[in-house]
Amino acid sequence: QSALTQPRSVSGSPGQSVTISCTGTSNDVGAYNYVSWYQYHPGKAPKLIIYDVSKRPSGVPDRFSGSKSGNTASLTISGLQTDDEADYSCTSYAGFYTHVIFGGGTKLTVL
Amino acid sequence: QVQLVQSGAEVKKPGASVTLSCKASGYTFINHYIYWVRQAPGQGLEWMATLNPSGGLTTYAQKLQGRVTMTRDTSTYTIDMELSNLRSEDTAVYYCARDSSAGLIKSYAFDIWGQGTMVTVSS
Q1: Is residue B76 less than 8 Å (CB to CB) from chain A?
Q2: Residue B95 · residue B81 · CB < 8 Å
Q3: How far is B101 from B107, CA to CA, in rounded Å?
Q4: pLDDT score of A1 more than 60
Q5: I need a labelling partner for B39 at 20 to 30 A (CA). Which of A43, A87, B82, B105 fits?
Q6: Is residue A101 scored above 60 in pLDDT?
Q7: What are the φ/ψ torsions at residue A63 (nearest 5 degrees)?
Q8: Would you say B40 and B26 are in contact if contact means Cβ atoms under 8 Å apart?
Q9: Which residues contact A61 (CB under 8 A, 6 or more apart)?
Q10: Pairing mode, if any, of strands A9-12 and A106-110?
């Protein structure tokens, strides 16, 4: 059982947009702007795609965007491409003693 | 290129200790915090420890206090994590990861990950 709640799966067609939610509490997602998102392809290292809720590392396309409302953060992928098919997970800072907590991951299928 | 390379798989008996290594290369070692996280079979990822590679200061998860020690060697760019008094529930894949922010400002975002090290605790 993960500390942050994500849907198990989402799907979309090429060119469409999808949004993945990440729900925490007022002690983590709701309290800090340290939400990050990762993309996981099988057999590859996780790739950081969003940090500080909505910032993109260099090289990440602007099709990937992040936002937060209350205790829920969201990752939106627009203009879906087949390469976007992967697992996505979120993390959030949760205070000094808990530090970083993780979501359980969401499988994105591009139909 | 920028990378973290971890030591190999370990099999340990309950009560033993294990030390995992994470060697950094391709960047200024002292500029980025390093974390250890783990994932037990069928479970989510869990933060274990954080280290400031410049001063060596550490922060540990409360549930692991007293059993985990994170150290660094600035001459070999290596970060070690020792976990003692191993239990079956410590069976997991362990990862080291780098904080994406340089200049020792934490973003709590991990931009570089090690390849993972499987630790099996079994009698």
Answers
A1: no
A2: no
A3: 6
A4: no
A5: B105
A6: yes
A7: -70, -20
A8: no
A9: none
A10: parallel
